[in-house]
């Protein structure tokens, strides 16, 4: 079931990420278009004003006596200002910018290199506030010679501040929208996986029922095969071989069925641990005794290291199953003449460390990540031949999880493998 919750979380995350990217792009474009539309309007007004001032100034230059009462075409808005300079840089006429702004404006004019008719926005990160002015310059020509230059500007700080505020409130709205979208996404993703969970549940129930139902007929077949095996009237070597093959196959099938049942039950959280005081060291010794004939067959030396006795609260049956899986694998995947070591230790109070180490074929880096998956086998044919079904390590992991522990693997191809199980004592 965890996998469904994980995909629900993932779906919500992806959905929110897409929404976040979309909202960031939207805010960026809204900001840009608002800035562009405001700037272009202001710039148009500025260029028009510059033209008007240049026209008026031309008239004044021709009628210098009018200069004293030339107030009438001064700008009405106090945000607008202009300066007319003669070619030597001496001011002829001006409508000054505010005293706070003027030093900055004059500084901009002294460094002016924008082309005639172009509008530029200059900003000054002052001590008290960030000011912005929009300015344009228009040279006045007479007979091919520049007689004056008009600089017209406007304090657009308020406009940009307004734009900034609008963008911030838009961003705040976007965060709200994102939170709503994430919530809606989570609910929708939950709705979307409901049929999946139902289908999965049916499948699991089917596997559990099927394996449960198969157990009885299989034990009947096994008992019958045993009976035939012990029947003295059957003397034909061929028939004896057939009976032995049937027994082998039924044994494999019984194991597969009980493994399947375990896995199906673990999905349903129907597996419970029955904790009791268990001597893990004694359980390891018992597993070694069980595996000894198989090890002897392959001339593998089975060794036990570590504590002689280690009592802890564990589920005895499941821990024995875990030991059997790990030692069985170690023997299975170790060539003749190899060595398998089982170690039981308590590195700290309340901690148990169980290790199985072999000198076998090893596991590659890429396979290491998948060996705990159900039905995963590095070499299917080889595993089947040895009676494996790919469920062993998945069950081992489940048993470790049920005990709140962890299982890790260290391995090198061709050198050997070490499984390390850590459990709470
Ligand atoms: P199987 O029933 O095939 O052994 P498992 O789940 O127990 O299935 O193991 C999965 C796969 O991991 C095996 O098929 C094998 O390829 C690999 N494996 C497990 N234990 C070892 C080991 N000790 N040494 C090398 N390979 C191993």
Question: Which topology of the largest domain does CATH recognise?
Answer: Beta-Lactamase
Order of helices and strands: HEEHEEEHHEHEEHEEHHHEE
Mean pLDDT metric = 89
Task: Provide the number of structural domains.
Answer: 3
Return the structural class: alpha+beta
Beta-strand percent range:
15-25%
Number of helices: 9
Q: Top keywords for this entry?
A:
425 residues; alpha+beta; Beta-Lactamase; Helix Hairpins; Heat Shock Protein 90; 3 domains; 5-stranded antiparallel sheet; 5-stranded mixed sheet; 9 helices; 54% helix; 21% strand; rod-shaped; binds adenosine-5'-diphosphate
List the helices and strands and how they pair.
Blueprint lengths: L1 H61 L17 E6 L5 E5 L6 H9 L8 E7 L4 E13 L2 E11 L1 H73 L7 H31 L7 E5 H18 L3 E6 L4 E5 H17 L6 E7 L5 E8 L6 H4 L11 H6 L6 H11 L3 E7 L3 E9 L1
Parallel strand pairs: 7-9
Antiparallel strand pairs: 1-2, 1-5, 3-4, 4-5, 6-8, 9-10, 10-12, 11-12
Helix pairs in contact: 1-3, 3-4, 4-9, 5-6, 6-9
